[in-house]
Design brief:
The protein is of the alpha+beta class. Helix content is 54%, strand content 16%. Among the domains are: 3-60; 75-267, Beta Barrel (Thrombin, subunit H); 441-519, Serine Threonine Protein Phosphatase 5, Tetratricopeptide repeat (Alpha Horseshoe). The protein has helices at residues 3-18, 22-33, 40-57, 62-73, 108-111, 243-246, 257-267, 270-284, 288-301, 306-318, 322-335, 340-353, 356-369, 374-386, 390-403, 408-421, 424-437, 442-454, 458-471, 476-488, 492-505, 507-518; strands at residues 77-83, 89-97, 103-106, 116-120, 126-136, 141-146, 168-173, 181-193, 197-202, 214-216, 222-229, 237-241. The longest helix is centred in the N-terminal third of the chain and has 18 residues, at 40-57.
Length: 519
């Protein structure tokens, strides 16, 4: 084989990879790997031909698909026009339909302080916003009802999944009043603020008018809502995760915007709320020391501001000031003692500090306020199991299953508790329940293997470990346990095979298995 020709072939093939075109990559691999009988000169000619066609045509389907996606999304996006009491336009934002009833999602701050608002659709028609149905100022979201004929509505689907880092996204909105503008970007980072929600940073720009725009994945689903731009730069733009939209629930009767604004003005000073929003913008960006000052100022303006105390606690957590963080979280609870999420937040922090009994007490308080708080039961179960309070742990996980029969993780942890208690047949049943819900959950197979070993059923144990490895080929524990089980069966050769595999995966596990085999 001519080395120069081979280098040329791979260089050209690399250019195909850069075009990010699956069809071309597939063809290229087939030429490289399967066309053994074709001369190298012929291969080079074929690859060059493909490259020339690709350059002329552009990335196959990418532009067309993106255009179709945007065309599908645009009819769901509206421009929010906000008015004062004199019917003068005070600001412009963005929003989007989520159902055929006429519900639109936008940012809380877009409507905050307004007297009335309209929604302008992609065809230029204007429809009045009748009612505010639900809001959550902590995540800067509001759901409104637009007075629009049903046949004019083209809603967009919501996703409850968080995006992945580096995932490509689109934002459709009205930056600077330029309606139906599309910008592209990627997800740069994801941050969770306890008792508030998940936010993510993105490279797609946000400008005045973009607030409330849907952030779309390449499947055409809303994964977030554009909310604010970090104070220092155009490249630091944030969205609240789509899961927060799904959690929006009415807290009272639907209100006209003017009444909603009036009620909000009675709750807390607007200045304190603005300070909180600025504080959270710094917190999300990881600048806790700067955020601290905004939350302190907000508390000075409004000592009963729950958001400010919660944000202050979050900053102290980031700055590793545990006592100050606990005091702030406790103060947040005092301002709103019936908010179960605040107690849950404090309980989670107690776990981080290793104060397990304090965490148990706080989780119990969560459950007393909200008996359907699934995550509180689950965390209780984990703590009880760690403390070998196994019956209490099982009871907590059983409550999770009562609330959510498809909670595979609860069945899995019940299996662990049964194993520790010596209830091996119950442990097997629990892991089988896991696999009915998640057939490819390798740890359930692995744990079944361990239990079969305790029951003196080595063949079943070996079978379970092999299933775990089938699902997850690099599962170190399963390879180690399989090697041990084979050794107990007298299959030293099989155990050595697992040792060889482990040498590539985990040296310490490989050495431990080696010692079992020879010592």
């Amino acid at each position: 084989m001519d080395i120069c020709q081979e280098k040329i072939l791979y260089m050209v093939f690399f250019q195909l990879l850069l075009q990010n075109t699956k069809l071309m990559i597939t063809l290229g691999f087939r030429i490289l790997d399967e066309a053994k009988g074709i001369k190298m000169k012929t291969k080079v000619k074929i690859i060059f031909g493909l490259l020339l066609w690709l350059v002329a045509a552009g990335p196959v389907g990418a532009e067309v698909n993106l255009t179709k996606l945007v065309d599908k999304i645009r009819p769901a996006v509206v421009t929010i026009v906000v008015y004062d009491v004199n019917r003068k336009v005070t600001s412009i934002g963005s929003g989007f339909f989520i159902d055929k009833t006429g519900h639109v999602i936008t940012n809380y701050h877009v409507l905050d302080g307004s007297y009335a608002a309209d929604a302008r659709t992609s065809d230029g028609k204007i429809y009045p916003i009748k009612l505010v149905v639900a809001d959550n100022k902590s995540v800067d979201l509001v759901k409104v009802l637009v007075d629009i004929p049903r046949q004019k509505i083209k809603p967009i689907k919501l996703s409850k999944k968080l995006p992945a880092i580096a995932e490509q996204i689109l934002v459709v909105g009205s930056p600077m009043g330029l309606e139906q503008t599309v910008s592209e970007g990627i997800v740069s980072s994801i941050r969770e603020i306890p008792s508030v929600g998940n936010f993510f940073q993105m490279s797609a720009p946000i400008s005045p008018g973009s607030s409330g725009s849907p952030v779309i994945d390449l499947r055409g689903r809303v994964i977030g809502v554009a909310t604010f731009q970090f104070l220092r730069g155009q490249n630091l733009n944030f969205a609240v995760a789509g899961e927060s939209v799904l959690k929006l629930k009415p807290t009272g009767p639907a209100l006209a915007i003017s009444r909603w604004t009036f009620n909000n003005s009675l709750e807390q000073p607007k200045l304190a709320e603005d300070l909180c929003r600025q504080g959270y913008s710094f917190s999300i960006n990881g600048e806790d020391q700067k955020a601290l000052e905004f939350f302190r100022q907000a508390i000075a303006k409004d000592p009963k501001n729950t958001m400010a105390w919660n944000g202050l606690g979050y900053c102290h957590v980031g700055l590793n000031n545990p006592q100050a963080a606990i005091r702030a979280y406790q103060q947040a609870i005092k301002t709103d003692p019936t908010d179960a999420s605040l107690h849950f937040n404090l309980a989670n922090y107690y776990i981080k500090l290793g104060r397990l009994q304090a965490a148990i007490d706080s989780y119990r308080q969560v459950i007393s306020l909200n008996p359907a708080f699934e995550k509180a039961y689950f965390r209780l179960g984990i703590i009880y199991t760690q403390l070998d309070r196994l019956d209490e742990g099982k009871a907590a996980f059983e409550e999770v299953i009562r609330l959510n029969p498809k909670a595979a993780s609860a069945y899995f942890n019940i299996g662990i508790a049964h194993t520790k208690l010596g209830d091996y047949h119950e442990a097997i049943n629990a892991n089988k329940a896991v696999l009915r819900i998640k057939p490819d959950f390798a740890p359930a197979y692995n744990n079944m293997g361990l239990v079969y070993g305790k029951l003196g059923q080595p063949l079943d144990a070996v079978k379970a470990y092999k299933e775990a490895i089938r699902v997850e080929p690099d599962y170190v524990s399963a390879h180690f346990n399989l090697g041990t089980a084979l050794l107990l069966k007298g299959d030293k050769t099989g155990a050595l095979d697992e040792y060889k595999i482990l040498k590539k995966l985990d040296k310490e596990a490989a050495d431990n298995l080696f010692n079992k085999i020879y010592y």
